[in-house]
Amino acid sequence: MAERLRLTGIGKHFGAIRALHAVSLSIEEGQVLGLMGDNGAGKSTLVKIIAGNFRPSEGEIHLDGEMRDFHHPRDAQNAGIEIVYQDLALCDNLTAASNVFLGRELKRRTGPVRIIDYKTMHRRAGELFAQLKSETRPRDIVRKMSGGQRQAVAIARTLLADAKVVLMDEPTAAISVRQVAEVLELIRRLRDRGITVILISHRMPDVFAVSDRIAVLRRGELVADKATIDSSPEEVTGLITGAIESA
Amino acid sequence: MNTTLEQAIGQSQHRSLLSRIMSYQVFWVFLAALIACVTLSLVTDTFATERNLFNVTRNFAFVAIIAIGMTTVIASGGIDLSVGASVVLSAVVVGMVMAAGYPFWLAAAAAIGAVLLVGFVNGILIAYVGMPPFVVTLGMLSFARSIALVLSNNKMIYEFGPDQDLLLWIGGGSTFGIPHPLIVMVILAFVMGFVFKWTAWGQHVFAIGGNENAAILTGIPVPMVKVSVYMFSAFTAGITGILMAGWLGGVTTNLGTAMELTVIAAAVIGGANLAGGEGSAFGAVIGALLIEVIRNSLILLGISTFWQGAFIGSFIVLAVAFDRIQKLRGQE
Ligand SMILES: Nc1ncnc2c1ncn2[C@@H]1O[C@H](COP(=O)(O)OP(=O)(O)OP(=O)(O)O)[C@@H](O)[C@H]1O
Ligand SMILES: [Mg+2]
User: Fold this and answer.
1) Is B191 near chain A, with CB under 8 Å?
2) Does B218 contact chain A (CB < 8 Å)?
3) Cross-strand bridge partners of residue A199
4) pLDDT digits (tens, 9 = 90+) for B17-59
5) Which of A93, A102, A143 faces B218 most closely, judged by CB atoms?
6) What ipTM does the predicted assembly reach?
7) Range of the domain at B292
8) Residue B166 — left, alpha, or beta (φ > 0 → left; ψ -120 to 50 → alpha)?
9) Residue of minimum CA distance from atom 7 in ligand 1
10) What is the CATH number of the domain that holds B72?
């Protein structure tokens, strides 16, 4: 299959802190990469660089063979990269539909002004939630939602954009077991559509359940990148803690 | 299976209208103001007079206009303590430019320009330099009021040049019996009620107040929106300054003193959440109305107006308590 995303020698400094150092990775179309590592290993930082939230201090990003330099999350969005954040990045005070469309509200013209087209937004969001088999209602305020419903809202954002790459930072951290199964099922559905998924998770069973490959970061460095079937939870644990140097 | 899910979704959208309305703080505040008005017209024979109502509506319009701007700032998660200073700055500028013989429109443009600059500086320091709104606007309160003193040399302005009559008519006059400040307030409330709900800018203001981080991550131009919010708040104060100059027929440098407190109180009583993300233009108007009705009733009932602060303070705490109760109920 075709290469979708290639990272070469990515490094990132926050002042004196070296969050990432010389990370190189290549991911294909329709592949799910499990990205693992201890707290502070640099997983979120790497994903935020791909999503255009940070610019790397060193290194290059190629998407579909083309070099990309994102200055802004919107650049990455326009290129087909969507991110589901660890903290879900939802506005609790807005409705599910408003959150799905936040920053790219649909507009319609009435007279001289362009106003938000709530009707279409509610219908589209409803369709997306139905695709996700989620009971989330477009008009409900996010504050009152369950962890799984919030997850659906965050994931619906990526479906809306018809993404090529979906980055998920701890999507299963805040939800119940049944909902975890739903999210994993959803990740498979994204993959079946040819979407490349990078899944950050601390939960070993989740990663082994859905990922084709596993990459491990330790203190900002990539210490492993291999097919899931060639690895084991024991090996990955060793890689995360440093008991195993690299694989 | 599918139909039952959709049915369930459909049903829960039809939560009874009454219970929805009752969950709005604005509704209760409106009720309180209404009860106060009715009681006053029954108990006193001075409240429901044309003269008194004219005064009440005009007074509350000044607070309400700025409270709409303040609600915008609060909804974005900020606060603007410099509005009272912007009022006096605007009034002094309009007065001095007119006194120098320039036409009203030019003077008004200069006044609005001055306060927009105030809002712009506030916004830049808050959004781009990352300083806390409380500190920045507190500093600006002092700075802008001082500039107003310097410009006027602390002298009262009561000669407004060739367009004097126009200024007095705009601020103090009425059309179809409705005082002009009230007309401005109604227009502003409708426009902003519309803008909050139906424009991307309005949505973004509330998104920033709800979760600034999320707003940044979704690519909303957060700093620009914040600057615009502080400029808008200053703009409402500037408009009020011009109207007040015309209404009073003179400008003294104590104009707008401590007005920021009344305005914030009006916004909060009207449902603006100081934690950000909530508030409405209608609420701001109702909050301002309640405060003015209380003030007026104390005067008419012959109670010392020193009590006003106690009432307003209690209402603020009540409003916030109401909000807490709603949140706790929502968590169940
Ligand atoms: N905006 C920032 N400014 C300064 N330092 C940062 C910033 N973001 C991350 N860091 C630092 O970079 C390092 C990597 O952080 P990162 O959030 O990428 O870790 P992580 O692997 O996602 O951890 P976790 O599992 O806890 O989410 C940490 O030392 C963190 O403190
Ligand atoms: Mg992280």
Assistant:
1) no
2) yes
3) A34, A168
4) 666 666 677 788 888 888 888 888 888 888 888 888 888 888 8
5) A102
6) 0.79
7) 48-331
8) alpha
9) A14
10) 1.10.3470
